[in-house]
Prior knowledge:
single chain, alpha+beta, Immunoglobulin-like, Serine Threonine Protein Phosphatase 5, Tetratricopeptide repeat, four-stranded antiparallel sheet, 23 helices, 14 strands, 11% strand, globular, disordered N terminus
Amino acid sequence: MQKILKYFLILILCFITQHIQAQENENKRESTSFIVRGSVRESDSYKPISKVNIEVNGGAYTVTSNDGEFRIQVKKGDELAIRHKDFETVYYTITSNERISVEVKPALRKPTSDLKYQRSVQNFNSFIDSAVTYQKKDAEKSIQFITEALLQSTSSKENADAYEVLGDVYVHWKQYDLAVSNYRISLQNSDSNEVNLKLAEAYRNNKSYQESIDLYKNLNISSLSNWQLTILYEGLADTYVTIKEYDKAIESYKKGLVVAQKHLIKPKITDLNSKIAQTYNISGKTNQAQDYFKNALSLASKENKTRSVKEKVTVADFQNTNRLYTDEIELRKEALKDIEEIEKESVIDNESPLTSQKQNYKIGSAYFAKKDYDNAIPYLEKSIKEANKKEDLIVQKDATRKLSDVYYDAGDYKMALATYKAYTEVVDELYIKKEQELSQAARFHRNITEKQNRITTLESDNKLSESLFQLTTERNKRQELIIYSLVGGVLLLLITAYFMYKYIKQQRFANNLLALKSLRSQMNPHFIFNALNSVNSFIASNDERTANKYLSDFSQLMRAVLENSDEDFIPLRKEIELLELYTKLEHFRFKDKFDYAITIDDSINIDEYQIPPMLLQPYVENAVWHGLRYKLEKGHLDISIHKKNNTEITITIADDGIGRQQSKVLKTENQKKQNSKGMGNIKKRVAILNEMNKDKVDVFVDNFQDAEDVGTKVVVTLKKD
């Protein structure tokens, strides 16, 4: 009896184990749905068969087009049933997203042979499949396969497929303007709901918001599949969110949610609940957001672990925004455990929000927000360690800076200073990396442009070949066709040149913005390091009270500097306030070396002028540290602002110090290098800003007087906006 009971228990355990595994496999499959392409052709003639019924065992359904092509939403393991009255039903099990090629032998048609046509179609499909395989790995190789496919193309439908895949490649590599161009070419060759949806999304990513909205609204809803209809409402809502029309966005998301729920499109039900919650949150309706986040979190937990973690992180971000730090910390700790399991099976890219270093950084930040320094420090240290191991310099920079702030708030100024120095080193390393990435991006863009030009030329050549063919068959229209071909070619070249010019102009502007940001990021650490040296000197001399007073004023200055660090221009009033505070700090340290005065012409309305942040401070710093500090008797620093004319003012920084030539003699080689780097930084900033803003700022440097101590005079001319 006991033996029978033992076997019975074993059988029950086996059954439960199999049931759990089956549920886990099902959950994994549910969130990995994708669109698979395919074609149905005759085996002998390789001619396409239209109106073939394609059905998935999960319920999705479509028919082949006139070209024998079809697309259908599937998951790995699904079984396709391919039915038609002229051949026996074919069953096919989905194993990957590769193109499905079905060849059948019709019962009612006599076989004919066209090996050339068959070989051409097979070659075309092979090149397209190779392009899709390399789409996310190697853009240049993928584009090369598309070029070869276009050379094999024998129909407008194949041209449309090739340009669609080319658009997909550009979308993945974030070249959205090129993606728009190629999707439009695809639609010119053959209209498709799938490509129209992709084009609308590419318009949004390319910041052509009205075009995106118009395209979504003009699509024929009745011709869309349930999946496509859900994508339409979701895409339209995404565009509305981008332009901050939140009520319209929520309305569209909810329409998509109704379709997804009605037709059991589970991944989209989760996504749309999450997006509705996020939109409610950014529109200030946190109560409604909480309800939808709760739904999304519950639904995501029933999908695979990656989707579950993604939703936990999204909800944690919401809790952080609303200062629910305790809930946020608990949820991020759960996410961290899941991330550790995911990383055992796959590598998570540093760009993903699901990295352990980012979650540790955010947990540490949440503890810091709660003033729980003891818990904040180990999480931030772990984030720094992991970021360093995974070469994630951005997170390493942010976590190091946050750790310095924690030490400072906790009163451990020595560790705060040491950590801040480590932060400046990471910033310098990150700057070098960004320069390398910019160089690589420029090279990548050149290569992509060359290949796109080749494809554009190929398209022009194809059109010209068609024109020549028509000339041989329609002699009566020869002259007219030649004229049209030439005009079309010229227009195509002009359009290509226009888009190239527009893109280069946008790229140059973006590069200038990035260069400005990089230069500003160099200024702040340099300025902060010098100020901290001053604090260090007071501490070294055991003048703790003076150090504390200096540090208090320095913190006010730092707050002002950091508030302005991301701006290209700030009001002149703010720059003057910053300059007054900085000069006060320097005078506090060198009281016996100089006096100073700041005068502003009463006729100047300083609120009417804008100035690059931290432009004047380096000149004042040079005046004190390299001019007045070495003067034998007490010197004077004069900062004055005068009106030059109705649209310009001059800002003069004059000192009666030892002058530039004498200062060079006294400097060490390292000091010369640092000073040259600082002044070079300012010159680059002024040059870039003048290029972007039509010579808004002018800087002139000369000797101040004809005495033994010639001093230095810097005159900054500033134009009104």
